[in-house]
Amino acid sequence: MAKSENIVWHDSKVTKAHRQQLNNRKSAVVWFTGLSGSGKSTISVELEKELHNMGVRTYRLDGDNIRHGLNKNFGFSPEDRKENIRRIGEVSKLMVDAGLFTLSAFISPYREDRDEVRALVEDGEFIEVFVDASVETCEERDPKGLYKKARAGEIKGFTGIDAPYEAPVNPEVTVDTDKQSLEESVQTIVAYLQKKGYVE
């Protein structure tokens, strides 16, 4: 709820439809969710490069990057995680309104929070990509050394270790990075976007 009642929405003469028409395509948010180390950021980087090469205007939002600026005042409590995702949902909505193809890579462990982001945009503008990898695989990769710290008790509330991860029930796309290569994962997502008419 807004804290002030003295605010009024100010409409623009340039709408999302105008921006999409200028870009000659729909805008949407591709929301990557999965455990730390599953490959969300890596895949989003490569997908953005692929889409850029296809002439798609994009912007990428990444969990760690956002916590360097906009959300640097948050920790990893359930309350902070919820507000972190709420804010990123609102930023993603603005990016979609700007006509951009937005790639948002966040652990986002709670289904309710992801569903709330989906509800912020219109039907067809939220594409949930479940980056599926077992805890064992992620822990073996451990690119940031976080699982090791979590196992040693240096990090509390770590998703997949002592905090829950709620996998999507019906994601638009699932990539299994236990089995699929980076290139295969990217092409799985591109194939979905092409099939649904988001890109040519």
From TrEMBL:
<dbReference type="GO" id="GO:0000103">
    <property type="term" value="P:sulfate assimilation"/>
</dbReference>
<dbReference type="GO" id="GO:0004020">
    <property type="term" value="F:adenylylsulfate kinase activity"/>
</dbReference>
<dbReference type="InterPro" id="IPR027417">
    <property type="entry name" value="P-loop_NTPase"/>
</dbReference>
<dbReference type="InterPro" id="IPR002891">
    <property type="entry name" value="APS"/>
</dbReference>
<feature type="active site" description="Phosphoserine intermediate">
    <location>
        <position position="108"/>
    </location>
</feature>
<comment type="similarity">
    <text>Belongs to the APS kinase family.</text>
</comment>
<dbReference type="InterPro" id="IPR059117">
    <property type="entry name" value="APS_kinase_dom"/>
</dbReference>
<keyword id="KW-0418">Kinase</keyword>
<keyword id="KW-0597">Phosphoprotein</keyword>
<keyword id="KW-0067">ATP-binding</keyword>
<dbReference type="GO" id="GO:0070814">
    <property type="term" value="P:hydrogen sulfide biosynthetic process"/>
</dbReference>
<dbReference type="Pfam" id="PF01583">
    <property type="entry name" value="APS_kinase"/>
</dbReference>
<dbReference type="GO" id="GO:0005524">
    <property type="term" value="F:ATP binding"/>
</dbReference>
<comment type="function">
    <text>Catalyzes the synthesis of activated sulfate.</text>
</comment>
<keyword id="KW-0808">Transferase</keyword>
<comment type="pathway">
    <text>Sulfur metabolism; hydrogen sulfide biosynthesis; sulfite from sulfate: step 2/3.</text>
</comment>
<feature type="binding site">
    <location>
        <begin position="34"/>
        <end position="41"/>
    </location>
    <ligand>
        <name>ATP</name>
    </ligand>
</feature>
<keyword id="KW-0547">Nucleotide-binding</keyword>
<protein>
    <recommendedName>
        <fullName>Adenylyl-sulfate kinase</fullName>
        <ecNumber>2.7.1.25</ecNumber>
    </recommendedName>
</protein>
<feature type="domain" description="APS kinase">
    <location>
        <begin position="26"/>
        <end position="176"/>
    </location>
</feature>
